[in-house]
Amino acid sequence: MGDNRVVSVGLVGLGRLGRQHAENLAYRIPNCRLTAVCSIKAEEVEEAQAQLGVPYGYTDYEDMLRNKELDAIFIASPSSYHCDQIEKALAAGFHVFSEKPLGLYMEEALRVQEAVRSHPNQVFMLGFMRRYDRSYVYAKRKIEAGAIGEPVLIRCYGLDPAQAMPGFLQFAKSNYSGGLFLDMAIHDLDLARWYLGVEAERVWAIGGSHRYTELAQLQDAETGAALVQFAGNKMGVFVAGRNCAHGYHIETEIIGTLGTLRIGTVPEKNQVAIMDDRGVVRECAQGFLERFEQAYLDEAIEFVEAILEGRQPGVRVEDGVLSTALGYACKESYDTGRLVEVCAPAALSGSHDTR
Ligand SMILES: NC(=O)c1ccc[n+]([C@@H]2O[C@H](COP(=O)([O-])OP(=O)(O)OC[C@H]3O[C@@H](n4cnc5c(N)ncnc54)[C@H](O)[C@@H]3O)[C@@H](O)[C@H]2O)c1
Fold this sequence. Notes:
Blueprint: E1 7-12, H1 18-28, E2 32-38, H2 42-52, E3 56-58, H3 61-65, E4 72-75, H4 82-91, E5 95-99, H5 106-117, E6 124-127, H6 134-144, E7 151-161, H7 165-174, H8 179-183, H9 186-196, E8 200-208, H10 214-217, E9 223-230, E10 234-244, E11 249-256, E12 260-263, E13 274-276, E14 279-281, H11 288-291, H12 293-309, H13 317-336, E15 340-341
Parallel strand pairs: 1-2, 1-4, 2-3, 4-5, 5-6, 7-10
Antiparallel strand pairs: 7-11, 8-9, 8-15, 9-10, 11-12, 13-14
Helix pairs in contact: 4-5, 5-13, 9-13
The structure holds nicotinamide-adenine-dinucleotide.
């Protein structure tokens, strides 16, 4: 590290989310410099370099890893590349942030876990940004303070706006997303583990494609539901979808022995109510960049601070492995129509931090 108070970052992936991370890393994260960007699309690299003043641009990821000015690699490429790119970045000596999901298969997720564990002096963080959203953090603190007693059931809605479907179909045709549960519900599956404080044991998942039947040809579902049995007789109900007419609907309910707590019951865009000939209208957030703008910033701040302070961040590789195990079990149950036992690898006890 040249200047030990500034973390020099190389970002791979300049798509829907990568571009937002690029702007955050370039302008909004203290003690951070966006030194390099990489994408297989040269035009994206040139545009990001020109607009954000990034000195180095690459169309080949391994070329970027040879840049000695970098301290850390930020991965926002399609999910099927995450594991390989994480392993290569760790082997080259970098701190690594990776977008979710950690991996699409258990074998690769476990391989990455080994790689992270064998580089204990390098920071690794996974992008479960909802753990940095202020409402989700507030709910966690309330639960820890006993506000609803012992949490026993979690109910989650994770619905993408229908208007994003054409873009998603394009993405899903060229990149394997892992399907509705590993790609979309994974945030809720991680939150369930975080709030309930236990791991999943078995799952039954169903789904279908009723409006965009092309999704069925991609072996994916437009709308799906999973019922999950967690340890200690705790429960989870997850609804995921990509055809939400009113916008981006992210809602979470946690039922405890003494009360219930809800986050985002009505997924409002802001505090404005429009009263006109339609009645009283509260508009809805239209996508993840809008709803979780602050969380994407705060997770990147946490990553950079963890590097500067020489500690590991709150979201760890084990969270990635266990949520992939649960997401994969949901996918398997959806594919086979059967109740599926979650493959929870041993040696993962103690993975419930208190962040
Ligand atoms: N945390 C969240 O809320 C959230 C939201 C959206 C996406 N994601 C995750 O972020 C990742 C990217 O999603 P997206 O929607 O931005 O995808 P995208 O398709 O819009 O962008 C992918 C980017 O990666 C580049 N790319 C593809 N293959 C590459 C390779 N081999 N080497 C280098 N660059 C390559 C593409 O050119 C593009 O710039 C996915 O893993 C997705 O699951 C997370």
